[in-house]
């Protein structure tokens, strides 16, 4: 097989949660460029429609479905509808996420639950649905979780306290390992991307006051850019990573090595 064929996603369908903007949309661009039909879910229909128009302008076949991972009862019906209307899901990118900044002693319970429900509980339920409806019957699949370097370390005390986010992303890191081990003999790989700081809507507040400190503590002295996740996302979604599973890979400009 030619090397370029290992990355070819033609005929594959990729479901990307939280795919209407930010890192999810960047990943959709990458997988679509290499031939995948992309399916985006997110809460806001207008943002999904804008993303669909953007992707189609790049020549990518895209479908969009408004869905909230925090609404557990809607998850399996949404996956069922996608499979019925688009086809079997070959690649699942668990990208949707939520965060909350507050000192632990003052952290509201409802905010804690919101973060856990999206970042872990909803991710578990959509993964379970895709496994049962698509990947296990097919005996193949690629699951790519978007975790965070926040799941690989503690939190700089000079930055906003984000215990729920760090805890949920740490859970997703081990979700990746445990599920990878369970699925390893079933033709399904499970890996995660752990981004450092990228300029997105979620990081806007942090970057507003902490960008300079972040740049100073990052060996490459820059934030993540619009192309920096694409290569790894393509690798983990394609046959080029067929012998990789259970890996949590930091994309952070070297921040984790210092």
TrEMBL record:
Domain of life: Bacteria
Xref: InterPro entries: KR_dom, NAD(P)-bd_dom_sf, Sc_DH/Rdtase_CS, SDR_fam
Molecular-function GO terms, alphabetical: gluconate 5-dehydrogenase activity
Pfam families from the UniProt entry: adh_short
Listed EC numbers: 1.1.1.69
GO terms for biological process, alphabetical: carbohydrate metabolic process; fatty acid elongation
Transmembrane segments: none
Keyword annotations from UniProtKB, A to Z: Oxidoreductase
Residue intervals of the Ketoreductase domain: 12-186
Family label: Belongs to the short-chain dehydrogenases/reductases (SDR) family.
Protein name: Gluconate 5-dehydrogenase
